[in-house]
Amino acid sequence: MQRQLNERVALADRVTRVIARTQKLPVEAVTINKTFEELNIDSLDGINILFALEGEFDIDIPDDAARSIKSIREMVDGVEALLDAKTAKQVAAAGSEAAPPETPDKPA
């Protein structure tokens, strides 16, 4: 449980740093509880942030999901969900590669 909390904090830190860098804001100004409105982030800024986060985390953020994000916390939650899905897909792919191929039963 503590590990998950530490990973969540580290993820939130990375997301806030990317947003701060992209918006040229002090890192301490971008906190998990801030909204984009409070940070004066408009829709064009939001697009730049999405591109930066996609590059940082090697993920694809769906346009429809991006439109609904209004806060740093929602952004962190969304990135976390996409990373979890990516990891699950990689684990599933690795598991299917490790499984021996099925051989059809041969008649005796």
Task: Characterise this structure.
- The chain is mainly alpha-helical and 108 residues long.
- Helices cover 65% and strands 0% of the residues.
- It has four helices and no strands.
- The protein has helices spanning 2-23, 43-57, 63-68, 72-98.
- It is globular, with a radius of gyration of 19 Å.
- The model has no long low-confidence stretch (mean pLDDT 89).
Q: What is the rounded distance between the termini? A: 53 Å
- The mean pLDDT is 89
Number of distinct beta strands: 0
Round the Cα radius of gyration to an integer and report it: 19 Å
Briefly say what this structure is.
The protein is mainly α and 108 residues long.
Layout of SSEs?
Elements: H1 2-23, H2 43-57, H3 63-68, H4 72-98
Helix pairs in contact: 1-2, 1-4
List keywords for this structure.
108 residues, mainly alpha, 4 helices, globular
